[in-house]
Amino acid sequence: MSEIRLVIREQERDWSGTMHASCADRAIAALSADPVTIDELEAAVARFAKPHGDSRFFANLSPSLCDEPYAAGLIVIDLSARLIVVNSTYSSPGTSGEIEYHDGNCCTKTLLPYHLADDWFISSNGLDWQATADERRRERSEQAVLDVRKVFYGQPLLEFVAREVLSAFARRDQIAEAVRARRAEEAERWRADDCDEQDDLEEEGEDADDLLDELADEPGADEERYGDLFYDALKQIHAAWLLTPREDLGGACPREIALQQRSHIAWDMQDRCSQWSLQHACPPGLDEASHAYLQGGFGTHELVEYYSLVRELLWSCWEQLAELASSPLGAERLASLAAGDFLADEVPRLEKVREAWLDAPDVELHGRTPRSVINRERARLPEGVSGKEAIVDPDCPCCQMLADMPGPAFWHLDGSGMDDEFAFDMRHRTREAWEAEQQRWEEHRRQFDAEWAERTRLGVTDAHATRDGSPSVWSRSLDIDGKDDVPLGARAFSVGCNLAELIVSLRGGAEREQTEPATQRQIEQLNRDFGNLREILQSPDASLIEALVEPVLHRCQETLAEVASARPELATKCEDLAGKFSRLLDPPPQEPDWGPDDLELPF
Q1: pLDDT tens-digit profile of 34-51?
Q2: DSSP assignment, residue 363?
Q3: 143 HSE (CA, 13 A, CB side)
Q4: Helix (H, G, I), strand (E, B), or coil: what is residue 85?
Q5: CA distances from 387 to 55, 363, 398, 411 (A)
Q6: pTM check: above 0.85
């Protein structure tokens, strides 16, 4: 029997009724959207079951509490206690799994993944579950519900930034002197310990003494902020903001609050990416009035953008003080300026800086604004783009092949530009875990350095090899030439990787805008030839492929010969790649036909 009793409990009201057990399983999967009311749960179920007209998913439930098992058993979902009771002979859903999507008419074979937050508890005790629910409700009611974003983005943050930057600015001369001394020490140590690197610099026309002066002196205005003398001072203020416990956060520090739900939101975002890929349509997002949107935790995208926002506020405040100090009247005013007076003027100014930064389109975000990226993640919606929009380098054959693939591409922020310190780390909740990870990486580096030193001594630093074991001409790209039973698509992609490395060598490391016109024409011809080959190989007409593929392969080889003639230093790569084009359609080797009389069997 597949009917089941379902109980859904809100904070002030209970609902119960019977429905198909698979529908109850979808209700459990919908808890991944963190609903707190039955209406929010109804909306979240649309992830796993297409709404059918005006009918409600939980239409069979009525305001009551009846927990008597029916047919296949009982399922209780207590939204306030974050408790799930499963006493069912139909299924045994867990806090993660896969659910068949219902298209409004029937179940499909499309399996959609889900992950619930860590604080959900599943019990199989269908008799005494109310005692467990009451205890969990009592514990959760003692946890204050905080609007943490008012602290993270509002007056508390801005006052902290203004007050701490003013304090640091008063010590700017001591800070600058200490940084210059440290840089001079580092430069001297570098010059003493790394003579080989100095020789390389001198061969390239750089003088080590000039480098020492460059490291010791204050960077010019055109250099990045991370080279500024006061970068570390502002970084320390940022770290202090994240690591200092606050009463308005219930005694927790901002970093602790920020990381509480990051893992859960990351899983939910990944599940929505999978759903989009499987169903070829963007899944439904959270309503902006829902509790999970308004009071939910921080995901990776918001944490990355928040890091950049705090740095922008810190630098803006510092530069405001520097501008004030640069004029005689301003310097005199600054000398007598009290912290309270400064905050009264600076906090409203920083509010405007914050709003302007959040609403400024960013080329690194595909032209999106930080606010829109943050809000989209809060709604649990992936950042999807077409394959063509995802192309990083229009001259890269690998990018072009990826653009040919069906379905959306997803981009993610990962925090790779954030300072590598515990305060800014997003993966480890405790300092002990972070330090253990640092030790593992240090051990990995030591082992790699030792292995590389031994490989250098033996003269085997090339990680690639050809069919006969000799060093490969390809040092930075996939090379599967000679591998047996590799599908044609994978072989074509390997050739595309080698072609991409050849194009990088043709450019000489220059950006596209700086490439010589003749070289750019060669690059474009190589891409046209390879594009023609890809188009033919993707054709469903076997006779068309047979008729056209040989001329196209021949044209690819001709262009490579032209490149080799114009750039002799790349001739080896061109010849190797031309050979791969000629072998691209070779059939895989046949398995030996071992007969009963063979004496040497392959086992």
Answers
A1: 999 999 999 999 999 999
A2: G
A3: 9
A4: strand
A5: 37, 18, 12, 11
A6: no
